[in-house]
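PT: before anyone asks, these are the final sequences, not the draft ones from last week. 231 residues across everything. Please model them as a single complex and drop the result in this thread when it's through.
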Amino acid sequence: AQSVAQPEDQVNVAEGNPLTVKCTYSVSGNPYLFWYVQYPNRGLQFLLKYITGDNLVKGSYGFEAEFNKSQTSFHLKKPSALVSDSALYFCAVKGSTLGRLYFGRGTQLTVWP
Amino acid sequence: DAGVTQSPTHLIKTRGQQVTLRCSPKSGHDTVSWYQQALGQGPQFIFQYYEEEERQRGNFPDRFSGHQFPNYSSELNVNALLLGDSALYLCASTTPGQGSNRRDNEQFFGPGTRLTVL
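LR: through. Structure below.
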């Protein structure tokens, strides 16, 4: 069975500091991993994905994610947080079932000035 | 280029009623998936349509049904509404790949329909 865990409900960070939003996964077979962001009263926006290749994936808005197979993790990172990054972040995995995404519960990121 | 659109934006229904939600996929996309996002939860997969047929289904009762039209737009129908059906319903479309089955294709989401059941 495919699943994703986001161990932190909330992450708080000061503007200008680096941020990390954690995600661990469980899949049968090769993982196809995604990060999405959701702003209030909005749908999900795609940030980045890992399919294969380099373990460090670069995405939109300066975000990147590090894939670690041995730790089954796919943490989202940004070197310097902005107040406008404050939003709800979801990690997701596609498993062997075609097309279906399995989402974590989400992590609320708050960046304070 | 229009993204994924959904209608209506908000909807209020009472228990036992039926509701229909609509989705138009991003231009050039042919596969539509529906998700339910309850408050404080991540989205849960309901089902996926491709070539006007339901291709995959999540763990949702038969009260949830759908349809895809020849222009790739889709409807989600929920019968006999329960209070627990209150949620944000998200539609997502996928870039076509080889038969639109490619696992590496990201899904593009619409803004959602907020359904409240009283």
